[in-house]
Amino acid sequence: MPQQDRSAPQSPQQQPHVPQQEHPYRPSAFPGYDHGRAVPLPAEPETPGEDDESRLGPDRLALLVLAGFGLVCLLALWAVGGAAGLSVGVVVLVAFAAWAARWIAGAGVMDSGFRRRSRLVGTREPTLRYWDAALSDAARTPEGYALHLYPLLLRLYEVRLAERHGVSLRMQPVRAAAIVGPQLWPWLDPSRPRTPTAIRAARNAGLEHIPDPRPLPPALLELLVERLETL
User: Fold this and answer.
1) CA dist 52 → 46, 56, 103 (Å)
2) Where in the sequence does UniProt note compositional bias of the Low complexity kind (predicted)?
C-alpha cells in the first residue's frame, strides 16, 4: 500500500510534461516582442527544380555576353589607339567590373527587380523603443499596423524569403504567398491597400470589397512573428 500511494502522484507530474516537449517555449527573436509561444504551422511542400530556376543572382549567359563585349571593345581600342587606347580601355573595364560586382553582391539584401536605393538591411535599424511603439499602436488603433508595424514586418519577411528561399516577395508574390501561407499572406501582401489614403484612392477607382483597417489581434501578431522565425 505505501508503494501505491507513492506512485499515484507521479502520473499527474508526467502528463503535463508531454505537451511541453511537443510545443516548447522559444524566446522570440523579434525585437520588442519576447513573450510569444511557439505555434506549429504546416510545412509548405517544396517543388523540386523551382528554387534553382528562380534563385536571386546573376545570369551566367549575361555575364558571358558582357565579358565578350568588353573583350571586343579592348581589341577595337588597341587597333585604333594602340597601347594608349588599350590602357584607357582596361581602366574603364576594371572600373565597370568593380561596379557590377558590387551591384550583383547586393542581390542578397536588395530586391533585384527594382534595385531601389533603400536596402532591405540598412545601417539605420529601428530602435527597440520604436518597435514597442509600433506594436502597441498596431494593437490599439486601426491604422497603426499599416502605418508603423507593417513596413517593418514586410522588410523582415523580404529579407528572410530572399536569404532562405531565394524568392523576391514583390517580384514573385505567388511563390511568396505559398511559402508564407494563406492565413498570414493577406496581412503581408504589398498589392493590397492598407493606409487610409490608399484605401480611399482604391475605392474612388471603383475597387470593391476593400476591408476597413482594424487593429491587429495579439494572436495574429504572434503567428506573424513565429512564421518569420520558422521560414
Assistant:
1) 12, 9, 21
2) 1-22
